[in-house]
Amino acid sequence: MGSVTGFAIVGTGWRAEFFWRLAAALDDLDCVGVVSRGKDGLPVPVFRTLDECLAAKPAFVVTATPWAVTPGLVAELAERGVPVLAETPPAPDLAGLRELWAKVGSTGLVQVAEQYTRMPSHAARVALVRKGIIGEPTRVDVSSTHQYHAVSLIRTLLGIGRGRADVRAVRTIARLTDPLSRDGWAEPAEVKDAATVIATVEFDGGGLGLYDFTDNQWHNQLLMRRLLVRGTLGELRDNEVVRLTAPKTIVRTEIVRRQTGYDLDLDGFDTDHITFGDEVLYRNPHQGRRWNDEEIAIATLLRDMGSWVRGDGPEPYPLADGLQDHRIALAIDEAANSGLVARVDTEPWHG
Asked: Which pLDDT score, from 0 to 100, does residue 2 have?
């Protein structure tokens, strides 16, 4: 076993729990403790102050704190020379994004805990698109998750950097049954008003993103998740690809996920790998843990952060990208509220 990287967490909410719970199952990471003023009885050490926490010399700190608290905490840690993995978004509003960049952008110490592109299905799609199988990507539609997470998927699949964009959006209200939330099943399930925001993000230099999100779409299993990537040679739609492979030859190929534990497969329920024809696009790096996709993605992000602070790997998700994702998400809300085009202009983190 290689060296173990210790990290700390500020915050004790449901998101913070993911980090310490998953780290307990990883050989190369150790949660040295959590900063909390009030909670006791946690499965990791509890520090009452940030000074106590930093005395334990964590290699990095995860800030799993409310939106309003995160920017100040990130700035304090960066000023003290501590690498940070900041939960999304790193600041709540445009002024906060700009202020945070002004304070810590030049330090190079801050990464953002954007895990969606590390989810198995999304990671496989990113790998397929980057192989050029559908040619140059020109459009990405996401109807799955919200705000900065959806924007991250759009930008990553398009291969779009940090730059200017025009955003148009509309918000509509319609009745919808809402049977399930983070707290579990609704009894009885009620028909409620649900808002849907549909937006287009037109990036300077080419590339179109289509954003489609309905209230509680993360948990409401009555709503299909949809993802499309259009390229110059074809399209990827969810788990199917259509493309031109030779003159007068259009081919449809499935993206196939091998999931163990079904029927007479006694290996246990787990994700194995994802393939396109005979090509493996993705292998589960945590096979045997029986983790869901969110857990796989967060564990992968944590390990990537550990590799980066040790100097063994690239930046997991730079602060500038996290700021850009939320800048565009704010423009989507602005356009939906005003009915006008919201311009994302040059920002100091574009670089």
From this structure: 62
Residue 116, both tokens:
């969606």
Gyration radius from the chain CA atoms: 21
270 - beta bridge partners? 260
User: Do residues 180 and 221 lie in contact, with contact meaning Cβ atoms separated by under 8 Å?
Assistant: yes
> Residue 19 sits in a domain of what CATH number?
3.40.50.720
Which of 221, 220, 252 is closest to 238 using CA atoms? 252
Q: What is the mean pLDDT of the chain?
A: 96
| Rounded-to-integer distance, Cα 83 and Cα 100, Å | 15
The least confident of 1-15, 211-225, 323-337 is 1-15
Q: How are beta strands 84-86 and 110-112 bridged, if at all? A: parallel
**Of 61, 91, 113, which closes a domain?**
113
pTM score, two decimals? 0.96
Q: Are residues 100 and 208 in the same domain?
A: no
* Other beta carbons less than 10 A from residue 251's beta carbon: 12
End-to-end CA distance of the chain: 39
What pLDDT, in 10s, does the model give residues 106-125? Answer: 999 999 999 999 999 999 99
Q: What's the domain range around 128?
A: 116-289
Contacts of 131 (CB under 8 A, 6+ apart): none
Contacts of 289 (CB under 8 A, 6+ apart): 25, 270, 295, 296, 299
Same domain, 107 and 46: yes
